[in-house]
């Protein structure tokens, strides 16, 4: 859930994290409106009865008019506007002709039932029944979120105080997909033209045992995506910020430092948003790749770090090409998205025992977000428990200690839980220092 923190006041925006809007563009828009509305000062309240007489068509028209097509809009802005217009068109099919007073819990449930189970527009009647995709409750939830946002915007600009809000369906559990080191390596090899055979659990080979490689054009076209995968997985930087990275210091986009040790996620004069984009250190293994990229790009005098084969930056999202790469790597393209690489970086740091406050600062997010979204454990992170039981002291049986005097048990509680060793927390705080070295037995 997105909130606006204004001093001691906390205002809920009614928006949850959306995988189709990982950068929180909707939240940024509402934050800007809140600042403008606050600067205008207190407003005059309208009679509650007038609010219920407002046609929902006027509210949706106002929402659409408030989001005109901009010249020079970024890829994220174009994509978000397209999704917004689609949601408005779906909302009109049910709410057109109704009034604000008709927005009730019952009508919200009715809308959810109507929108659930609808075949996607790109699914034809001849499509394979096993691959047919239909809308779910989360589609209805996103559209009702747009309706609530439209009502809130209309109320702010028309000085209304008595408004209604649609009741949202329950939010689905956040998708917590992430990749292992081997799976990321498979993505990179797929960028080089290889294809994975799930049945053989190996790369596809011809009759003579040689690797089957895609054509040179496809390999050149995917070279820029390989850079994106490395940068996103090893730094946890968001999708849009990685695509806009530059080689030299500038005001409008992120860049790398001259010594290639620091990645600045936003330009020097770019306005900060609710999605923080703080600088981060570049891992040593990634610095070698960046140094090689820089040597090649300097020969062509290129500006973008992640670029197409003609040297220009990506003007649109890379979802289509990325899905093809994921499929060639033998992974599920419906579950693995570019944002999955950010989850991957978080899980790698957690499994390596990086303290949670360090990981949150590196990913440029709060500790609470890191725990809520990325905090689920894997079995690999339970090695500390296995190691602890392997080196436990031999316990005395109850009958042997019956005559012993009972001694009080003392549990030491650290004064600062945020800096404890973290054994009781969901994230590993400082497990690396508590691990014992492997003992080699002598013959």
Based on the model shown, name its key terms.
443 residues; mainly alpha; hpI Integrase, Chain A; 2 domains; 3-stranded antiparallel beta sheet; 7 strands; disordered C terminus; DNA integration; DNA_brk_join_enz; Tyrosine_recombinase_XerCD
| CATH fold-level assignment of the largest domain | hpI Integrase, Chain A
Distance, first to last CA: 59 Å
Mind telling me which CATH architecture of the largest domain this is? Orthogonal Bundle
Average pLDDT over all residues: 78
The main sheet orders its strands as: 5-6-7
GO biological process, one term: DNA recombination
GO molecular function, one term: DNA binding
InterPro entries: DNA_brk_join_enz, Integrase-like_cat_sf, Integrase_catalytic, Tyrosine_recombinase_XerCD
Keywords: DNA integration, DNA recombination
What does this structure look like?
The chain has 443 residues and is mainly alpha-helical. It has two domains: 3-157, no CATH class; 181-362, Intergrase catalytic core (hpI Integrase, Chain A). It is built from 16 helices and seven strands. The strands form three sheets. A three-stranded antiparallel sheet has the order 5-6-7. It has a two-stranded antiparallel ribbon with strand order 1-2. A two-stranded antiparallel sheet has the order 3-4. Helix 7 runs antiparallel to helix 8. Residues 43-49, 404-426 and 428-443 have low confidence and may be disordered.
Topology:
Elements lengths: L2 E4 L2 E4 L12 H15 L8 H5 L3 H10 L9 H21 L9 H11 L21 H21 L23 H11 L4 E2 L4 E2 L12 H20 L3 H5 L11 E2 L5 E3 L15 E2 L2 H17 L18 H10 L11 H12 L4 H8 L3 H8 L8 H8 L40 H4 L9
Antiparallel strand pairs: 1-2, 3-4, 5-6, 6-7
């Amino acid at each position: 859930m997105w909130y606006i923190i204004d001093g001691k006041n906390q205002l809920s925006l009614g928006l949850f994290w959306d995988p189709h809007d990982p950068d929180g563009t909707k939240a940024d828009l509402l934050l800007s409106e809140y600042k403008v509305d606050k600067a205008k000062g207190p407003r005059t309240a309208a009679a509650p009865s007038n609010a219920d007489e407002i046609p929902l068509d006027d509210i949706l028209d106002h929402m659409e008019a408030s989001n005109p097509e901009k010249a020079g809009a970024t890829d994220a802005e174009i994509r978000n506007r397209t999704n917004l217009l689609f949601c408005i068109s779906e909302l009109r099919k049910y709410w057109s002709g109704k009034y604000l007073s008709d927005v009730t819990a019952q009508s919200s449930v009715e809308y959810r039932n109507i929108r659930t189970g609808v075949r996607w527009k790109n699914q034809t009647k001849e499509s394979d029944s096993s691959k047919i995709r239909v809308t779910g409750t989360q589609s209805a939830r996103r559209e009702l979120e747009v309706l609530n946002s439209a009502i809130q915007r209309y109320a702010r600009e028309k000085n209304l105080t008595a408004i209604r809000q649609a009741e949202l369906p329950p939010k689905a559990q956040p998708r917590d997909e992430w990749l292992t080191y081997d799976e990321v390596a498979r993505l990179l090899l797929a960028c080089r033209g290889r294809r994975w055979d799930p049945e053989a659990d190996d790369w596809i080979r011809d009759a003579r045992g040689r690797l089957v490689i895609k054509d040179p054009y496809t390999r050149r076209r995917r070279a820029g995506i390989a850079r994106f995968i490395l940068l996103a997985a090893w730094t946890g930087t968001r999708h849009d910020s990685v695509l806009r990275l530059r080689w030299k210091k500038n005001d409008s986009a992120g860049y790398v430092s001259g010594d290639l040790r620091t990645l600045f996620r936003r330009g020097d004069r770019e306005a900060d948003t609710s999605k923080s984009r703080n600088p981060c250190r570049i891992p040593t293994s990634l610095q070698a790749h960046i140094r090689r990229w820089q040597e090649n790009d300097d020969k062509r005098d290129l500006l973008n770090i992640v670029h197409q084969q003609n040297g220009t930056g990506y003007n649109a999202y890379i979802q289509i090409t990325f899905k093809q790469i994921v499929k060639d790597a033998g992974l599920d393209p419906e579950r693995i998205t570019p944002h999955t690489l950010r989850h991957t970086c978080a899980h790698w740091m957690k499994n390596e025992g990086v303290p949670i406050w360090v990981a949150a600062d590196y990913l440029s997010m709060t500790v609470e977000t890191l725990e809520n979204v990325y905090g689920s454990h894997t079995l690999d992170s339970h090695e500390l428990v296995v190691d602890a039981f392997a080196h436990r002291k031999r316990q005395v049986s109850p009958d042997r200690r019956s005559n012993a005097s009972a001694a009080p048990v003392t549990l030491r509680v650290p004064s600062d839980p945020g800096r404890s060793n973290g054994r009781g927390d969901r994230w590993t705080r400082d497990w690396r220092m508590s691990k014992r070295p492997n003992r080699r037995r002598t013959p």
